[in-house]
Amino acid sequence: MAGREAIYVDALWVEKAPLEGEPAVAELGCTSAPLLSASFHLSQKCKAYNEDFLLCKKANGDPEACLKEGRRVTRCAADFIAALRKNCEKQWDAHWQCLDAKNQTLHKCRPEEKAFNECVFDKFGLTKTLPTNPGETPVHLKEKPYYS
Protein backbone atom coordinates (compact mmCIF):
# COMPACT_ATOMS: atom_id res chain seq x y z
CA MET A 1 0.00 0.00 0.00
CA ALA A 2 1.23 3.47 -0.84
CA GLY A 3 2.41 5.71 1.95
CA ARG A 4 0.43 8.69 0.69
CA GLU A 5 -2.90 9.40 -0.91
CA ALA A 6 -3.16 9.87 -4.66
CA ILE A 7 -4.22 13.26 -5.93
CA TYR A 8 -6.76 13.37 -8.73
CA VAL A 9 -7.41 16.65 -10.48
CA ASP A 10 -10.61 17.08 -12.46
CA ALA A 11 -9.97 20.68 -13.47
CA LEU A 12 -7.82 22.31 -16.13
CA TRP A 13 -4.46 23.55 -14.91
CA VAL A 14 -3.96 27.19 -15.84
CA GLU A 15 -0.79 29.18 -15.27
CA LYS A 16 -1.95 32.41 -13.63
CA ALA A 17 1.36 34.24 -13.68
CA PRO A 18 1.55 36.64 -16.64
CA LEU A 19 4.27 36.27 -19.23
CA GLU A 20 7.14 38.70 -18.94
CA GLY A 21 6.44 39.89 -22.46
CA GLU A 22 4.37 38.77 -25.38
CA PRO A 23 6.28 36.56 -27.80
CA ALA A 24 7.37 38.52 -30.84
CA VAL A 25 6.46 35.64 -33.17
CA ALA A 26 3.07 34.00 -33.45
CA GLU A 27 2.78 30.26 -32.94
CA LEU A 28 2.70 28.04 -36.03
CA GLY A 29 -0.87 26.90 -35.47
CA CYS A 30 -0.16 23.29 -36.48
CA THR A 31 -0.64 20.10 -34.56
CA SER A 32 1.85 17.25 -34.57
CA ALA A 33 0.55 15.50 -37.72
CA PRO A 34 1.01 18.48 -40.09
CA LEU A 35 4.41 19.20 -38.55
CA LEU A 36 5.50 15.58 -38.95
CA SER A 37 4.31 15.62 -42.55
CA ALA A 38 6.31 18.74 -43.36
CA SER A 39 9.28 17.99 -41.09
CA PHE A 40 11.71 16.64 -43.70
CA HIS A 41 11.16 19.62 -46.00
CA LEU A 42 10.95 22.09 -43.13
CA SER A 43 14.32 20.97 -41.77
CA GLN A 44 15.91 21.47 -45.18
CA LYS A 45 14.27 24.85 -45.81
CA CYS A 46 15.18 26.25 -42.37
CA LYS A 47 18.49 24.43 -41.92
CA ALA A 48 20.63 27.54 -41.45
CA TYR A 49 18.32 28.99 -38.78
CA ASN A 50 18.08 25.64 -36.97
CA GLU A 51 21.87 25.29 -36.92
CA ASP A 52 22.31 28.83 -35.56
CA PHE A 53 19.80 28.10 -32.81
CA LEU A 54 21.45 24.81 -31.83
CA LEU A 55 24.93 26.36 -31.85
CA CYS A 56 23.68 29.21 -29.66
CA LYS A 57 22.15 26.77 -27.18
CA LYS A 58 25.34 24.72 -27.08
CA ALA A 59 27.55 27.79 -26.62
CA ASN A 60 25.44 29.51 -23.96
CA GLY A 61 23.80 26.70 -22.04
CA ASP A 62 20.97 29.12 -21.31
CA PRO A 63 17.86 28.85 -23.51
CA GLU A 64 16.90 32.43 -22.71
CA ALA A 65 20.07 33.70 -24.40
CA CYS A 66 18.90 32.18 -27.70
CA LEU A 67 15.38 33.61 -27.95
CA LYS A 68 16.32 35.72 -30.98
CA GLU A 69 17.56 32.64 -32.86
CA GLY A 70 14.46 30.73 -31.77
CA ARG A 71 12.21 33.45 -33.19
CA ARG A 72 14.07 33.19 -36.51
CA VAL A 73 13.42 29.43 -36.61
CA THR A 74 9.73 30.00 -35.88
CA ARG A 75 9.44 32.72 -38.54
CA CYS A 76 11.09 30.48 -41.13
CA ALA A 77 8.76 27.61 -40.25
CA ALA A 78 5.70 29.89 -40.39
CA ASP A 79 6.74 31.23 -43.80
CA PHE A 80 7.31 27.71 -45.14
CA ILE A 81 3.95 26.47 -43.82
CA ALA A 82 2.20 29.45 -45.43
CA ALA A 83 3.96 28.63 -48.72
CA LEU A 84 2.93 24.97 -48.38
CA ARG A 85 -0.68 26.00 -47.91
CA LYS A 86 -0.48 28.22 -50.97
CA ASN A 87 1.25 25.75 -53.31
CA CYS A 88 0.65 22.17 -52.09
CA GLU A 89 -2.37 22.40 -49.81
CA LYS A 90 -4.28 19.45 -51.28
CA GLN A 91 -1.32 17.05 -51.17
CA TRP A 92 -0.18 18.23 -47.74
CA ASP A 93 -3.68 17.90 -46.28
CA ALA A 94 -3.99 14.38 -47.69
CA HIS A 95 -0.65 13.35 -46.19
CA TRP A 96 -1.06 14.81 -42.72
CA GLN A 97 -4.67 13.64 -42.45
CA CYS A 98 -3.49 10.12 -43.32
CA LEU A 99 -0.81 10.38 -40.63
CA ASP A 100 -3.37 11.67 -38.16
CA ALA A 101 -5.77 8.82 -38.91
CA LYS A 102 -3.06 6.14 -38.81
CA ASN A 103 -1.37 7.04 -35.52
CA GLN A 104 1.36 9.06 -37.27
CA THR A 105 2.92 5.92 -38.71
CA LEU A 106 4.84 7.05 -41.77
CA HIS A 107 4.96 3.73 -43.62
CA LYS A 108 1.16 3.56 -43.75
CA CYS A 109 0.93 6.80 -45.73
CA ARG A 110 3.54 6.33 -48.47
CA PRO A 111 1.21 7.01 -51.47
CA GLU A 112 0.12 10.33 -49.93
CA GLU A 113 3.73 11.11 -49.03
CA LYS A 114 4.85 10.49 -52.61
CA ALA A 115 2.29 12.94 -54.00
CA PHE A 116 3.21 15.52 -51.35
CA ASN A 117 6.95 15.11 -52.00
CA GLU A 118 6.48 15.51 -55.76
CA CYS A 119 4.59 18.76 -55.22
CA VAL A 120 7.24 20.12 -52.84
CA PHE A 121 10.07 19.06 -55.17
CA ASP A 122 8.38 20.75 -58.13
CA LYS A 123 7.22 23.97 -56.44
CA PHE A 124 10.11 24.61 -54.04
CA GLY A 125 13.04 22.88 -55.71
CA LEU A 126 13.86 20.98 -52.53
CA THR A 127 15.15 17.43 -52.40
CA LYS A 128 14.63 14.89 -49.67
CA THR A 129 17.84 13.44 -48.32
CA LEU A 130 17.98 10.89 -45.56
CA PRO A 131 21.22 10.71 -43.55
CA THR A 132 21.02 6.97 -42.93
CA ASN A 133 22.01 4.29 -45.42
CA PRO A 134 24.14 6.30 -47.88
CA GLY A 135 24.12 4.88 -51.38
CA GLU A 136 20.79 3.14 -50.86
CA THR A 137 17.65 4.25 -52.72
CA PRO A 138 15.56 6.40 -50.35
CA VAL A 139 12.17 4.97 -49.46
CA HIS A 140 10.26 7.79 -51.18
CA LEU A 141 11.92 6.91 -54.52
CA LYS A 142 11.31 3.16 -54.41
CA GLU A 143 8.71 1.69 -56.75
CA LYS A 144 7.27 -0.64 -54.09
CA PRO A 145 8.18 0.87 -50.72
CA TYR A 146 6.11 -1.69 -48.82
CA TYR A 147 8.17 -4.67 -49.98
CA SER A 148 11.69 -3.34 -49.71
TrEMBL record:
InterPro entries: NDUFA8 (IPR016680). It is found in: Mitochondrion inner membrane. It comes from the Eukaryota. The keyword Nucleotide-binding does not apply. GO terms for biological process: mitochondrial electron transport, NADH to ubiquinone. Belongs to the complex I NDUFA8 subunit family. This is NADH-ubiquinone oxidoreductase. It comes from Caulochytrium protostelioides.
